[in-house]
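Final report, closing paragraph on structural work. Over the funding period we assembled a curated collection of sequence-structure pairs, and we close with a single example.
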Amino acid sequence: MKIPSATFRWVEYELYNLEKHKKELKLLKEEILLHSPDRFSGGIVSGVISDQTGNKVVRLMSDPRINNLENKIRVIEGVLRRKVFRDIYELKYKEGYSVEECCKRMGIEKGVFKLMREILICQIAKNLGEGS
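Its predicted structure, as stored:
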């Protein structure tokens, strides 16, 4: 169940930045949707009218930054469906409490908290393709 420390730190980084990732994803999508392209894709010479909606859909579906963020958010939120993992996320990664304070608020021992946090990290890493 052990994962490399670099992977552990990376997944923790993703947990600490989950809300930031959601905002970034929203901004990227809005940027594509609200961008007003030229009416003529081929220029005035060719006179071909562009399919603005189609172009926006293609950009939304093919943008690697959007795909990457959507995948990370989907995986993390999928794992956070379990109440204990959601509690750990809320206290440790969203609110920024220390391990000791998290244990106190959850009413569990430090060893149990650390084990549950490691399981949380391992499941996310595995679902993101980083674990075995």
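The mean pLDDT is 87. Residues 33 and 53 are 9 Å apart (CA to CA). We thank the funder for supporting this effort.
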